[in-house]
Amino acid sequence: MTRQDCCLCDDAKEVLEAVAAEGLCSWETVDVDRDKALLVRFGLDVPVLMLDDAPVFKHRVTGAELKAVLAGVN
What is the pLDDT of residues 56-68, one digit of tens each? Predict the structure, then answer.
């Protein structure tokens, strides 16, 4: 979950792009400001990374953290 003009969202996108380039995941962006239900659910808590419809990260994520979650290690 993301929104425009969000520096934390931009940082998360860079992490996702790097991890995806390694073939470890695929991803898509969803703008919370375009969906009233998502805006109510997440408000200012963006970015939110979802895995299997469950939030796994809010606000910040590193490549190492994301890789650990994707490998099933917390």
Answer: 999 999 999 999 9
